[in-house]
Write a structure and sequence with these properties.
Layout lengths: L1 E5 L9 H9 L6 H4 L11 E5 L2 E5 L8 H5 L5 E4 L2 E4 L9 H5 L6 E2 L8 E2 L13 H4 L6 E5 L4
Antiparallel strand pairs: 1-8, 2-3, 4-5, 6-7
Length: about 150
């Protein structure tokens, strides 16, 4: 299965992946409208910065995901290897947030904190490459198939 991979040696820490992710998941067709004051366009990827290294963090779509097992409402499921959220089922208990060992599930600001959100590889808004990988200026973020180690 294709996944998002990050080469921290190439990451510039520009945060463009966050902006393009937020825009791609905002439901808007115009970037300026997506980021107007009062809107809650939030990225599903984030850049961690520190001592000369930058690293993009997003859902790893684990093969045996603790978040799916921990979801008491059955709102998280695996569809073709992609962990997806059914926001109609999410009850906002945040068990999945606590279960994710990578900190990749966050409270969704677009729904007044009543549900969670995470990277779904842009499967709901883009038929091709996820927005973070497609718009990384240094190609530090890639969307590709790799052999299982």
């Amino acid at each position: 299965m294709k996944r998002v991979y990050v080469n921290e040696d190439w990451c510039l820490g520009c945060h463009l992946c966050e902006f393009y992710c937020a825009f791609a998941n905002s439901g808007e067709t115009d970037m300026s409208k997506a980021f107007k004051l009062g809107r809650n366009a939030a990225p599903r990827i984030r850049i961690e910065e520190g001592d000369g290294i930058n690293f993009a963090v997003s859902c790893r779509h684990c093969q045996d995901p603790a978040c799916v097992k921990g979801c008491i409402a059955g709102a998280l499921s695996i569809n073709n290897g992609v962990i997806e959220i059914n926001k109609d089922k999410c009850v906002g208990c945040y068990t999945c947030v606590l279960s994710c060992p990578y900190g990749c599930i966050v409270i969704d600001p677009q729904n007044d904190g009543m549900t969670v959100t995470k990277c779904e590889l842009c499967t709901r808004n883009n038929a091709g490459e996820p927005a973070c990988a497609a718009n990384c200026p240094n190609r530090a973020i890639v969307y590709e198939e790799r052999g299982e180690a």
